[in-house]
Amino acid sequence: MKKLILTLILNLFLFTISFAQIPEEAFPLTNSLSKLWYSGQIEKAVENSIELQKIYSPFFVDRIHNSFSQFLKTDTTGNGINYLEMLSSKNNEEVNKIISGIYLWGKILNSSNQDEYREILAELHLLLKEIIIIQRIVGIAF
Questions:
Q1: Which site from 11, 80, 122, 139 is most exposed, i.e. has the minimal number of CB atoms within 10 Å?
Q2: What kind and span of H or E run contains 125?
Q3: 3-state percent helix, strand, coil for the chain, nearest multiple of 5
Q4: Could you report the per-residue pLDDT of 90-132, keeping only the tens digit for each?
């Protein structure tokens, strides 16, 4: 009986430790983003995104790459690209690293002429150069 109780206490303790790794404040922030994107509340979405990235970056990455990418693909209001431009203009290095790829993709989706495509291609080229340099420094190969 003592072994059973000890096992239950140990499991409860381990569960509490693993559950406590995600800050509680991250949940309302991550859950608010979709509603803010769709309703056009871009300033609030940017504010919540930066705060979410500070509090718990994996949630922000997940929202951008899974939820926002779907929104951006079907967005006809311009809210998606406006959100990315405003978020990028905050000059938060960590956020800009996370959104750089989808930002360029969003610009392509909203472009209409060859000159814009050339500018985006030049930006993509610079981004890829940076990635290659970092890979060489760190020794990572894909």
A1: 139
A2: helix 114-138
A3: 80, 0, 20
A4: 999 999 989 988 888 888 887 788 888 788 788 888 777 777 7
pLDDT tens-digit readout, 23-50: 999 999 999 999 999 999 999 999 999 9
Both tokens of 10, joined, read 């140990």
Average pLDDT of the segment spanning 39-64: 96
d(CA 128, CA 44): 31
The answer for residues whose C-beta is within 8 angstroms of residue 26's C-beta and 6 or more apart is: 52, 55, 56, 59
Q: What is the pTM of this model?
A: 0.72
Rounded Cα distance between 78 and 108, Å, is: 13
Cα separation, 81 vs 100, in Å, equals 12
Q: Which residue has the tokens 């790459």?
A: 65
**36-57: b or e for each residue (b if 16 or more CB lie within 10 Å)?**
bbeeebbeebbbbbbebbbbbe
5-17: per-residue pLDDT in tens?
667 676 666 665 5
Amino acid symbol at 56: Y
Q: Please, what is the end-to-end C-alpha distance for the chain in angstroms?
A: 53
Token reading at 90:
């905050």
